[in-house]
Amino acid sequence: MLRLGMFAAFLMSVGVVWGQMPDRTPNTRYPYVTDMDHEGAYVLRWGLNATHIWFEVQVKTLGYVGFGISRDGRMVPADVIIGWVAGNQVHFQDYHTERYEAPTVDSSQDWLVDYGYEEAGWTVLGFTRALDTCDTLGDFKITRDTQRLIYAYHTEDPDVTSPNPLIRHTVRGRKSVSLMTTSHPPAELPIDSSVIDFTNDNFSIPVANTSTYNCRLFDLSDVNVKYHIIKMSPVFSPGMEQYVDHMVLYRCRIADPASLLVNGASFNCFSDAPDHVQFCREHVASFGHRNKEDFYLPEDVGIPIGGTGESNLYVLATHYVNELQTPNLVDSSGIQLTYTADLRTNDAAFLSMGNIISPNWLQYIPPGEPSFQQRAYCSERCIQWGMNSTQNALPMTVVGAKFHSHDLATEMKLRHVTKTSSGAYVENPWLAYDGAFDSDQQAFRVAEKRRNVSFTDHLMLECTYDSSTRGFPTLGGWHPDNELCRAYVLYYPRKMLEGCMSWSNYDQLRNQIGQPVNGSDVFNTLLATDWSNNNVMRVNLKHALQNSIENAQCWSSRQDPSYAVDWFQQTDITIQTPYQPTETRTCV
């Protein structure tokens, strides 16, 4: 327990200032901020260095507050703290949960309170812990993977005179957060920075469909000055977050956008899109419905917008999910871009990677698989095409990536393979990785170290799925019941290459009795398979995915021709030395 008077000087030293609550303002101690709930009643701020992380929670209650880290988002097992302010004292302890009952006080108190106070109906606690406490009894190591954070609070303080002072929480929840890979906001934005909104315009979500894709056009042909995009933000209509599954802003270069559709026109992204718009696929920004945080580009890079010869047609694609077919839903959500005329050192861009989604190019995941892998490639020839086949082209410096998949995905890995002078393939450290992927938290992941992708390299996106609790096959597609294997890779300097996708030929697939399956029969063979206790077909499918010919497609709206195709035998890219990350711990 700490008395308030004991740490008043400390509060001043870390920049804690009493004021209007909640305070979401980033500062040098707490550069990262997120709301743990939809109501804004539980605000989390944090900062970190190479060894420690420090948190501040602001909770709309005068009772006790709980916060912690969980393995899977449930309250058990979990590594938690509970604290409150009573009179002139801060009460704070480190606990862990082993079963669904009162938490156990941790014998090793590794979460340390920094300060605590109450103000205007809010409780504020600041506390610190090591990223790796080395405590194997109940503690979780904080890593670059997505962390499952949990929270709880009560309207009243515990009765410290009681033998069982903790009373059951009145509110609890969870949120997945990338504590170590979040984009760092600058101290301040340029004084000339402005914003432009790409939003839906009172779109009425159809009642007849549980899944709807609405696209809206924006013509920026009149923007003749080059600017840099430096920040991206989601914009949600009040109460619509639960219906907006995903928003993506694309762009392309069109000679006369007005000849296609009027500026601001809306249409179904698939059935009603004009031909040219269907190929408007340069990724600019994207947000999922659980990701409400802004994305700040690093201070040495900006994405060009406007200027002579630049992309002029922007398309906002919004995926709505209305499972209960609720009527009278009207939405104006979208994406806001912050831009500046104070151009940064490097022109950046996103490269879209992943599996092609099409009825004829099959992504297929059988049921009952706890760890099923699928790969997508950006081949050497596609990278060369995107660099204008110039051997001396500057390499692509990768800043980070955003992964996109659905509920079955558990692990996402962007692999980087280099061909040596002898022709051997060597794997470099992964460009991006999340060993605890959560489809509800699809935030951009800043690379731990920037790495260069050169003219003769391959990129490989590896997605791992857990279908062990699903009783039916899962196909590739945009609907939440389908699956995706996608990554949006931020890099500089900007190349012509905008997208790089691939799909398997399944030419090595064999049926139940070992006979080769003809290409035209692959789809029906997989759908007709009874996967219960069928290890033969499981082995056959995995063998086919790892050894079949891989087809690739790369594209650019700013290059003629606008796309190229490639194919290669996966077995030709045999990695001689796969990358293995090393874990260093100083525990004794």
UniProtKB/TrEMBL annotation:
Highest taxon above the source species: Eukaryota
Keyword Glycoprotein: yes
UniProt-annotated location(s): Membrane
Entry-linked Pfam families: Cu2_monoox_C, Cu2_monooxygen, DOMON
CDD domains noted in UniProt: DOMON_DOH (cd09631)
TM regions (residue ranges): none
Record keywords: Disulfide bond, Glycoprotein, Membrane, Signal
SUPFAM superfamilies cross-referenced by the UniProt entry: CBD9-like, PHM/PNGase F
GO biological process, one term: octopamine biosynthetic process
Keyword Lipoprotein: no
Signal peptide: 1-19
GO cellular component, one term: secretory granule membrane
Protein family according to the UniProt entry: Belongs to the copper type II ascorbate-dependent monooxygenase family.
Name of the protein: DOMON domain-containing protein
